[in-house]
TrEMBL record:
Keywords: Amino-acid biosynthesis, ATP-binding, Kinase, Lysine biosynthesis, Nucleotide-binding, Transferase
ACT domain sequence ranges: 264-348
Protein EC: 2.7.2.4
Any matching Pfam family: AA_kinase
Name this protein carries in UniProt: Aspartokinase
Family to which the UniProt record says this protein belongs: Belongs to the aspartokinase family.
EC top class, as a word: transferase
Cross-referenced PANTHER family: ASPARTATE KINASE, ASPARTOKINASE
Length: 406
């Protein structure tokens, strides 16, 4: 007997036919004698609709009421899934965040989980009941409903799996696993049987939108074995596990890309102490996240070019902030460029292999693709290139690192 958390995303509970299929899938694990806790998202499209209502009611809405509205999508699916399970003879009961309770901080709209009281849940499970938990929602310090940020039901599921000491957390979604890269672009992309937490974290934060990044962090910190698999077919998915579990580690496991970023260059900015702080301090104050930064050594000792990236949505604000500081920063010009893509090769094997970056640079050079910015970390090399080469670069790198399906 195993204790399993089964989480179903929006497309898996999109209508009653699918909710009934979910119930059948859960029943199979129940019939196999497992202890099962289910976590559900809102029906697909539902949260977007609720967010739009809240915006329409008041553009500068009160975050507490926003949460009261958007958390309701999960309440509906928890109840319907419990009903569908009961209809096929499974003793199921819905649980809302506050009923468990799943405690969070008070940051409405993107609350963090503080703790889950599992006493009641475990007691009921021991009595043969199967909980169906509404994902995405919790209870704040003032006893008001909170939500965990978009995609947050992944985090609900992993947190519940950690609190219940579950053997596995199965995340059912509309793809059948984690791929070496986006299969819509690279037809030779392969499904990975296993991926390490660290690699998954990089893939998730770089735009492979299979799992909410925070859920992966949580799984890594608590050693929760996560499996990403499709609810539409009956096949094993991708296991997200500790490095030690992967016997034959590829040097590069996956290639991610993000078109969310824009590049900004400050031309001939003064080269003296305090300038970087004078640029990035005000951006941080404006809650603008900066990702890649490159600054060259100045030739004349007076000025240099400085390039960095921000998300596309922050581009105009970034330019505004910098323009308001022109006198102090003494730069010659600002050149914003939204037509870039960040491509990253990821793999824990990089730690112990040389030449990984060179393969990337050479592959891109052979295709005549110019690299604008480079940044590296222990398990990742990222380059910024012109957006129009996204497909060409992904395909070429996928082949170069030996990732193509046979
Ligand atoms: N329903 C929420 C959303 O769409 C939470 C989730 O599905 O993970 O963001
Ligand atoms: Mg999701």
């Amino acid at each position: 007997m195993a204790r399993i958390v089964m989480k179903f995303g929006g497309t898996s509970v999109a209508d009653m036919t699918r909710i009934k299929a979910v119930a059948e899938r859960v029943k199979r694990e129940v019939d196999a004698g497992n202890e099962v806790a289910v976590v559900v998202s809102a029906m697909s499209g539902e949260t977007n609709k609720l967010v739009a209502y809240a915006r329409e009611a008041a553009p500068m809405h009160d975050a507490r009421e926003y949460d009261a509205v958007v958390a309701s999508g999960e309440q509906v699916t928890a109840g319907l899934t419990a009903l569908a399970l009961q209809a096929i003879g499974v003793n199921a009961r819905s649980w809302l965040g506050w009923q468990i309770p799943l405690r969070t901080d008070g940051v409405h709209g993107k609350a963090r989980i503080l703790g889950i009281d599992t006493d009641d849940l475990i007691k009921r499970m021991k009595d043969g009941q199967f909980p169906v938990v509404a994902g995405f929602q919790g209870l704040g310090p003032d006893n008001r409903i909170t939500t965990l940020g978009r995609g947050g039901s992944d985090t609900s599921a992993v947190a519940l799996a950690a609190a219940l000491h579950a053997d596995r957390c199965d995340i059912f979604t509309d793809v059948d696993g984690v791929y070496t890269t986006d299969p819509r672009i690279v037809t030779k992309a392969r499904k990975l049987d296993k991926i390490t937490y660290e690699e998954m974290l990089e893939m998730a934060s770089l735009g492979a939108k299979v799992l909410q990044t925070r859920s992966v962090e949580l799984a890594m910190n608590h050693g929760v074995r996560v499996q990403v698999l499709s609810s539409f077919m009956d096949a094993p998915g991708t296991l997200v596990v500790d490095e030690g579990e992967i016997v034959e580690q590829q040097v590069v496991s996956g290639i991610a890309y993000s078109k969310d970023e824009a590049k900004i260059t400050l031309v001939k900015v003064a080269d003296r102490p305090g300038i970087a702080a004078g640029i990035f301090g005000p951006l941080a104050d404006a809650a603008i996240n900066v990702d890649m930064i490159v600054q060259n050594v100045s030739e004349d000792g007076k000025s240099t070019d400085l390039t960095f990236t921000v998300t596309k949505v922050d581009l105009d604000r970034t330019v505004q902030v910098l323009e308001s500081r022109k006198a102090e920063l003494a730069y010659k010009a600002i050149t914003p460029d939204p037509n870039v893509v960040k491509i990253s090769v990821i793999g824990v094997g990089m730690r112990s292999h040389a030449g990984v970056a060179q393969t990337m640079f050479k592959t891109l050079a052979d295709r005549g693709i110019n690299i604008q910015v480079i940044s590296t970390s222990e398990i990742k090399i990222s380059v910024l290139i012109n957006e129009e080469y996204t497909e060409l670069a992904l395909r070429a790198l996928h082949t170069a690192y030996g990732l193509d399906a046979a």
